[in-house]
Amino acid sequence: xxxxxxxxxxxxxxxxxxxxxxxxxxxxxxxxxxxxxxxxxxxxxxxxxxxxxxxxxxxxxxxxxxxxxxxxxxxxxxxxxxxxxxxxxxxxxxxxxxxxxxxxxxxxxxxxxxxxxxxxxxxxxxxxxxxxxxxxxxxxxxxxxxxxxxxxxxxxxxxxxxxxxxxxxxxxxxxxxxxxxxxxxxxxxxxxxxxxxxxxxxxxxxxxxxxxxxxxxxxxxxxxxxxxxxxxxxxxxxxxxxx
Length: 243
What we know:
This protein has helices at residues 3-13, 17-46, 54-60, 64-73, 80-90, 93-105, 110-118, 122-135, 143-167, 182-194, 202-217, 222-241. The model is unreliable at 4-9 (pLDDT under 50). It is globular, with a radius of gyration of 19 Å. It starts with a helix and ends with a helix. The protein folds into 2 domains: 3-195, no CATH class; 197-243, no CATH class. The chain is mainly α. The chain is built from 12 helices and no strands. The chain crosses the membrane at residues 26-42, 145-168, 174-191, 221-239. This is Branched-chain amino acid ABC transporter permease. InterPro entries: Brnchd-chn_aa_trnsp_permease. Keywords: Cell membrane, Membrane, Transmembrane, Transmembrane helix, Transport.
């Protein structure tokens, strides 16, 4: 079979039932992406980014928090070392998220596993794991469900950040309507689906407390790394206490 036909078959196979289910479940999150994507695109436009450059920013670095930080810190000429350091710091949580996801992707060749990890964001990661827990059986993680959700979220983010750059000055302060609560609301719903009782969730609360204290006491985005590392360490210690 010619290579282009093989690729077409592979792409088409993504749209089977699990992928459609993932895309359907991601629709509310995709709607929550829209106002933030429009604002980010408009802010990038005000900093001199063209409508061709914005999708490169949001498509190659699929991490909303680090993109907002990069735009806020952007100057002419840009301070590249500062931008790289801040992007790494804010995206450092993806190292831990990827480590959690890696066992579910270990059986895949790199040409499939790496794109799956590239498309990972907080929401698709949580949705994929919540779906796996809901299935309650070994190997419950459904890659096609995860990819359906991930592709929908990725395309929404890139498209609407580009649209925000095109609309530019027409974009008003959408956060004045309280739309910044969309992401916390989504995470609360996802966490509810992953809730297994207080004892298994102790690392969540420790991570939350450490992140909140760091946010209030240390300038910058150090609270991201502090919350992630404290959650990881506490999860390891609690797991060790059971052995």
